[in-house]
Structures are given as structure tokens and as C-alpha cells.
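TASK: fixed-backbone design
INPUT:
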């Protein structure tokens, strides 16, 4: 009987895999046309100074509104785009659109753009970025590229050359999701990052009972960043007590629902219309314990 049950489970498992593979193929097909059909949009999430409540920048986040599936999660389609190489045209569109949108913002406000490791391994990236800057006329120092630690796996000479030639364009680099990958501190010393983004997995629970481990890690990252002359952003701040905690640690900017989710360009422009951009934080008083 146990054997039978085991076999049943195996069949269920492989059906599930089959279904997932089919789903992936479908997404791949539909992703090919999504850009031309105008289904892709960039939304912008504020990066806010927690002391003055003043917006310092926005991170561009891709949104795909599929006519049938509805809103597709980036976690689903970005990995498909990376596996199929579609991330290259998609990423180029993101860079161009983000630079073009940011030109309409006040000039002390930056735009942050996520760059996938696949884009980073492509030798054309510096040209793609230079073209996006040139055609938009965006000041290069207002563009911040977010890359993850995985870009440095293997730490090839080519990676370093791409990094340096992008840096020479005058833009900034942020190290995204810090602490979640195969962290090696060596590249923090060697590569001139301008900012470290503290992953939200360290935030949740840092202020609650038993969160001392996370709190210690956050404090260590902030003092490391300060010593290396880098800014910090805390990701995923949702509750007021999390914001208070992070403010006391001296984090440069906060990104999280407490200051707002990603919004379309029209809403960003409407905020700017109301003068310099300040946001009153709002959210639950207490952090949810995971
Ligand atoms: P990321 O770059 O780490 O972006 C931050 C993610 O955290 C976003 O998820 C954002 O909506 C979410 N977030 C922000 N504040 C909060 C909060 O208070 N609570 C919670 N629970 N979540 C919060 P999103 O938009 O779903 O994007 C997921 C990931 O997809 C991004 O992570 C990034 O790695 C990737 N991605 C998004 N747009 C692009 C893009 O244009 N190019 C590339 N290569 N990747 C992108
Ligand atoms: Mg990011
Ligand atoms: Mg991040
Ligand atoms: Mg993240």
C-alpha cells in the first residue's frame, strides 16, 4: 500500500512539473509580444529620507498587465525573460523609458533601474546605457543601476570592465538585495558601489521579539557602508516601528509601503506638481512578526 501511495505521489509530482513547464512556455510566448502590444509599464516606488520624509529618488519596477492573466508578478516573468534572453530587449526598453521619465522630475531626484546579470554579461550594456542617457538628456549622476551580488560570481575580468566603463559614464551603482546571495565582502572593497540596499528579509522581525540577530546584521551593514562612504537603503519597510528602528540606525533612505508602493509616471508627476516631494509615512504601528 505504501508503495502504491508513493507511486501516486510521484505521478502527481510529475504532472505538476509538466503543468509548470507548459505554463512557462506559454509565458515565454506571450512575453515575446508583450512589449509591442504595450502591455509593459514602468512603475516608480519612492526612496525617501526617513528624517525629513523627503523623496530622494524612485526605483523603476516593471509591471506586466496581461489581457487575460491580469498582472503578472515580476518574480515569474523576469526569470523567464532571463532564461530566454528576452531580458536584453526588455532591459533596454526599461533603461530608455526610465531615463525619459526621470527627465521630467526635479533634478535632485534620481531614478534607480534594475539590471539583470544577463544584461551585465552582455558587452553591449555600456553602449545601451550611454544611448539611453544621450537620447533622454538625463544627467548621468541621476541614474543609479541596481545590480545583485550574483553579477560578481566568478568575478571575471569582463564583469569588472563593464562595471568600470559604466562608472566612467558618471552614473551610480547600488548593490541590491544585499546579504541574501553568496556574499563575498571582497568586491565591496574593490568595486566602487555608491549604495548598499539592505534586503527586506533582515527588516521583518528586526524589531520584534527575538529579532536581535537581524538587528545586529543591519547595524553591521550600516557601519560597513558608512566606513566605505556608501549610502544605504532599507527595503520593505511597512510598519511605523520598523521605520523608527531604521531611522535610528542612520539608514540614508527607505523604500517600502510605509512611504508608498510603486506608482505610474502620471502619479509621480502629480506628486511633483504639489511642490517638493514629501510623504507622510503611514502604515500599521507594529511590525508583523514574519
Ligand atoms: P527588487 O529590485 O529588490 O525590488 C524591490 C521589491 O520589493 C519590489 O517587488 C517592490 O514592490 C517590493 N517592495 C517594496 N516595498 C515593499 C514593502 O514594504 N513590502 C513588501 N512586501 N514588498 C515591498 P516587485 O516589483 O515585485 O519586483 C520584484 C523583483 O523583480 C525586483 O526586486 C527585481 O529584482 C525584479 N525586477 C522588477 N523590475 C525589474 C526590471 O525592470 N528589470 C529587472 N532586471 N528586474 C526587475
Ligand atoms: Mg531593485
Ligand atoms: Mg531589492
Ligand atoms: Mg529585494
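OUTPUT:
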Amino acid at each position: 500500500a505504501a508503495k502504491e501511495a508513493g507511486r501516486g505521489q510521484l505521478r502527481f509530482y510529475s504532472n505538476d512539473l509538466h503543468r509548470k513547464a507548459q505554463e512557462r512556455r506559454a509565458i515565454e510566448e506571450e512575453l515575446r509580444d508583450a512589449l509591442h502590444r504595450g502591455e509593459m509599464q514602468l512603475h516608480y516606488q519612492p526612496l525617501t529620507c526617513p528624517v525629513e520624509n523627503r523623496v530622494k529618488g524612485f526605483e523603476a519596477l516593471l509591471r506586466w498587465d496581461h489581457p487575460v492573466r491580469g498582472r503578472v508578478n515580476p518574480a515569474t516573468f523576469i526569470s523567464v525573460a532571463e532564461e530566454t534572453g528576452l531580458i536584453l530587449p526588455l532591459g533596454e526598453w526599461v533603461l530608455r523609458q526610465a531615463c525619459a521619465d526621470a527627465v521630467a522630475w526635479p533634478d535632485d531626484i534620481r531614478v534607480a533601474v534594475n539590471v539583470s546579470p544577463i544584461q551585465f554579461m552582455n558587452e553591449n550594456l555600456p553602449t545601451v546605457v550611454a544611448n539611453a542617457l544621450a537620447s533622454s538628456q538625463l544627467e548621468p549622476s541621476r541614474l543609479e543601476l541596481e545590480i545583485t551580488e550574483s553579477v560578481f560570481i566568478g568575478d571575471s575580468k569582463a564583469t569588472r570592465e563593464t562595471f568600470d566603463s559604466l562608472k566612467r559614464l558618471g552614473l551610480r551603482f547600488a548593490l541590491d538585495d544585499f546579504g541574501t546571495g553568496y556574499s563575498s565582502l571582497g568586491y565591496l572593497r574593490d568595486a566602487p558601489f555608491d549604495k548598499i540596499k539592505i534586503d527586506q528579509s533582515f527588516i521583518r522581525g528586526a524589531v520584534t521579539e527575538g529579532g536581535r540577530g537581524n538587528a545586529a546584521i543591519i547595524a553591521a551593514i550600516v557601519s560597513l557602508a558608512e566606513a566605505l562612504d556608501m549610502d544605504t537603503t532599507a527595503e520593505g519597510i511597512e510598519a511605523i516601528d520598523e521605520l523608527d528602528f531604521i531611522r535610528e540606525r542612520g539608514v540614508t533612505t527607505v523604500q517600502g509601503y510605509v512611504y508608498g508602493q510603486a506608482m505610474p509616471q502620471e502619479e509621480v508627476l502629480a506628486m511633483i506638481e504639489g511642490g517638493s516631494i514629501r510623504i507622510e509615512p503611514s502604515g500599521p504601528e507594529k511590525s508583523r512578526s514574519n
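COMMENT: Residues 59, 114, 146, 176 surround magnesium ion (ligand 2) (CB under 6 Å).
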